[in-house]
């Protein structure tokens, strides 16, 4: 048994590709699988702790506690960890789900459409508050196939629309995120960069498009930008257009809002 500041968990779980470790708390005073804990000796979670109360949506975590304390294993101290406790969502990242399940066929594509349509709900809520997630990748969209819902987690890079980004996952970043980082690394001031590059809801939707593409084709868009229907013949033409519309390089030509994305998916 492990514990941090009297919060107990059974497994030391390391998530590959993530900066934080994760555990489900099993304190007797909590409901089963009610709270999850991110913990790391290096990362500070105070920013995410402040961001989470800005949103109130069943598919976005609610915060419980944040701090820094010693982690114990069976009563023996191990090391000091930063931690953040928030709502636990049952499920797994959608790309891993379809790696195991296999390439979606004609029947399963209907479920994929429902899942990504559902993912637009927390996105719309966030965007309507004037914020963008800025770090959407498979591990941050948690699919529960039993309920058909997708939770949007890990908000530590969330910014107000129009601000300078504070982090990204390169593989799932939008072209404008990459351009912003390039300009900053070339020594341009934040003020000068913001005159050239503006982040908005379409930036998040590009990242969602990359995940959608990978889930439904098993491939990375970056490896060839092949229309999804050419890889998976069961993809309807209307869905093909939606995914390609999310992946437009120019954000002005992209599907602009989560509401628009949802409406287009419902019309497939």
Features:
268 residues; alpha+beta; Phosphorylase Kinase, domain 1; 35% helix; 21% strand
Give a topology summary.
Layout: E1 2-4, E2 7-9, E3 13-14, E4 21-24, E5 35-40, H1 46-51, E6 63-73, E7 76-87, E8 92-93, H2 94-101, H3 106-128, E9 131-132, E10 141-144, E11 149-152, E12 159-160, H4 175-185, H5 190-196, H6 201-217, H7 228-231, H8 237-246, H9 258-266
Antiparallel strand pairs: 1-2, 1-6, 3-4, 4-5, 5-7, 6-7, 8-10, 9-12, 10-11
Helix pairs in contact: 2-6, 3-6, 3-9, 6-8
Question: What does this molecule look like?
Answer:
- The structure is a single chain.
- The protein is globular.
- Helix 3 packs antiparallel against helix 6, helix 3 runs antiparallel to helix 9 and helix 6 crosses helix 8.
- A hairpin with a 6-residue loop joins strand 3 and strand 4.
- It has a seven-stranded antiparallel β-sheet with strand order 2-1-6-7-5-4-3.
- 40% of the residues are buried.
- It has two domains: 86 residues, Phosphorylase Kinase, domain 1; 175 residues, Transferase(Phosphotransferase) domain 1 (Transferase(Phosphotransferase), domain 1).
- The chain has 268 residues and is an alpha+beta fold.
């Amino acid at each position: 048994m492990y514990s941090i500041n009297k919060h107990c968990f059974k497994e030391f779980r390391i998530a590959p590709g993530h900066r934080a470790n994760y555990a489900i708390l099993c304190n007797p005073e909590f409901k089963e699988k009610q709270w999850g804990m991110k913990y790391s000796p290096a990362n500070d979670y105070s920013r995410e702790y402040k961001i989470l109360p800005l949103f109130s949506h069943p598919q976005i975590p609610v915060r419980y506690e944040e701090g820094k304390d010693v982690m114990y294993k069976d009563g023996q101290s191990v090391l000091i960890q930063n931690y953040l406790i928030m709502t636990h969502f049952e499920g797994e990242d959608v790309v891993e789900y379809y790696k195991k399940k296999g390439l979606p066929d004609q029947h399963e594509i209907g479920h994929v459409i429902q899942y990504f349509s559902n993912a637009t709900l927390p996105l719309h809520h966030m965007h309507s508050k004037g914020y963008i997630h800025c770090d959407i990748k498979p591990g941050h969209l948690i699919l529960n196939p039993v309920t058909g819902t997708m939770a949007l987690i890990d908000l530590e890079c969330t910014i107000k629309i129009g601000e300078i980004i504070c982090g990204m996952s390169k593989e799932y970043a939008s072209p404008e995120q990459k351009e912003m980082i390039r300009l900053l690394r070339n020594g341009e001031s934040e003020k000068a960069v913001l005159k050239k590059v503006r982040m908005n809801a379409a930036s998040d939707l590009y990242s969602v498009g990359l995940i959608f593409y990978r889930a439904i084709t098993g491939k990375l868009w970056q490896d060839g930008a092949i229309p999804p229907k050419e890889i998976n013949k069961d993809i309807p033409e209307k869905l093909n257009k939606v995914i390609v519309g999310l992946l437009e390089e120019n954000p002005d030509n992209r599907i602009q809002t989560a509401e628009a994305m949802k409406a287009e998916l419902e019309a497939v």
